[in-house]
Design a protein that fits this description.
There is one protein chain. By secondary structure, the chain is an alpha+beta fold. The protein has a domain of 230 residues: Major capsid protein gp5 (Major capsid protein gp5 fold). The chain has 10 helices and 14 strands. The longest helix is centred in the N-terminal third of the chain and has 36 residues.
């Protein structure tokens, strides 16, 4: 008798494969549209081709956002399946790494769903007696950091400083020795070298408390066993965290436009004091000569690992630029998984907090060494606060993420590790 049996499947593996296929399909769509845009740019412009180019440019932005979301979830999925916590002395009950990780996640779910943590879990997931805020477990925090790569990649390019001193001001020391070199030493035995000290500067860097905003969840969703609260909170707060860090680093402000007191130099846009090129007028847009002037204005000491910084709309505009022979400046490689990601061989860092083109005195493009330009300070781990009673009459529970961040320029007076292109006033 023949008995038909179902093949053994691994749901987690199938989900991972599905995500990878989705990412592959999305990248294929994006690359095809970018290649089509390049083809349009290689021909004389018509009203129809301009309209098609602009439409594809907007579609590329949508697809790239979908790619970012899918890659973020794929990365989290891979991290969840491969994460190994090293054994530490004093682990509760002698649990293995996997058991400890499971207990940490259980403790976080208990806090998120009920506001309570069982006594035996408290050493795994610390809570504050004053605010009731729970420190984000390592897996959750890793998702926040991973979100920076997709929603705020500029946050992974600048220099990082992680502290845990309750937000106390930290002194940042800088030196400028660019004016000194080698000088002739007189006859031996008759004269000595002249004292030539570097010029030192310092500044105090504090932190501001910022929040990812309020998210409300109904009692029904919390009680629904099929509702994956962990993943839902990661997705919401991860994207907000990435976009918020991006805005703070770029503008020195929060996402609502309020100046952050401890963004000491007002962000990259303010500290890039050397205006390398000014387009003739707004109607003229940005030309290749502006880009070459921007490249030439950067001190050669910072041209080893520089990056271009712009938003996706500006990049789409540059894709359409042509030389005197009607050929695009961007020579794309359709076989590349990420075409149009560099100018003059230097990578483009997409930053949606950068100003759009076409605005008077706007700064749509930066160019320089980000690691030597700016320091992002985070103090302590992010915390999640559960509001038990505030929305109880609506059968809702509130959650909000808060963290402490600060930032400052690393460039001493007279040194410009990053330059900017400013558009005309009219």
């Amino acid at each position: 008798m023949f008995v038909q049996t179902k093949p053994i499947t691994n749901p987690e593996r199938e989900e991972s494969i599905s995500l990878q296929m989705e990412i592959k399909d999305l990248k294929f769509q994006r690359n095809k549209m970018l290649t089509d845009m390049s083809a349009l740019a290689g021909k004389p412009w018509t009203q129809e081709s301009r309209s098609a180019f602009d439409k594809m440019s907007k579609e590329v932005e949508i697809v790239e956002a979908d790619i970012a979301r899918a890659e973020s979830m794929a990365s989290f999925d891979a991290e969840s399946r491969s994460f190994q916590r090293s054994a530490r002395p004093g682990t509760i009950g002698g649990n293995s790494a996997d058991e400890t990780r499971s207990r940490v996640n259980d403790a976080f779910r208990s806090y998120a769903k009920t506001g309570q943590i069982r006594d035996e879990y408290r050493s795994l997931l610390t809570t504050s007696d004053v605010t009731g805020g729970a420190l984000i477990p390592q897996e959750f925090y890793g998702t926040l950091v991973e979100a920076l790569k997709y929603y705020g990649p500029i946050g992974t390019k600048v220099r990082q400083k992680i502290t845990n001193n309750n937000g106390s001001p930290m002194k940042i020391a800088m030196s400028n020795d660019t004016a000194n070199g080698l000088v002739l030493l007189g006859t031996e035995g008759t004269s000595g070298p002249v004292e030539t000290d570097p010029a030192f500067q310092s500044q105090l860097l504090g932190v501001d408390t910022v929040t990812g905003g309020l998210v409300k969840v109904s009692f029904q969703e919390l009680e629904d066993s099929s509702f994956d609260l962990d993943t839902w909170l990661r997705q919401n707060f991860g994207s907000r965290y990435g976009r918020g860090i991006e805005t703070a680093i770029t503008t020195g402000k929060d996402s609502a436009g309020t100046t952050l007191p401890n963004q000491a130099n007002g962000g990259l846009l303010s500290m890039a004091t050397s205006v390398a090129a000014v387009s003739a007028n707004l109607a003229a847009g940005i030309g290749w000569n502006d880009l070459t002037a921007l490249f030439s204005a950067l001190d050669s000491a910072y041209t080893i690992t520089p990056s271009w910084v712009m938003n996706s709309a500006t990049r789409s505009y540059l894709i359409g630029l042509k030389d005197g022979f009607g050929k695009p400046y961007f020579l794309n490689d359709p076989s590349n998984s990420a075409p149009f990601q560099s100018i003059m061989g230097f990578p483009i860092v997409l930053n949606q907090a950068m100003p759009n083109m076409g605005t008077a005195n706007a700064t749509p493009i930066l160019f320089g060494d980000l690691d030597k330009s700016y320091m992002l300070r985070t103090d302590g781990e992010p915390s999640l606060l559960r509001l038990n009673e505030r929305f109880a009459d609506q059968l809702l529970v509130g959650f909000f993420l808060y963290s402490r961040i600060g930032g400052c320029s690393l460039a001493p007076t007279g040194v410009s590790p990053i330059v900017k292109l400013r558009q005309a006033a009219s």
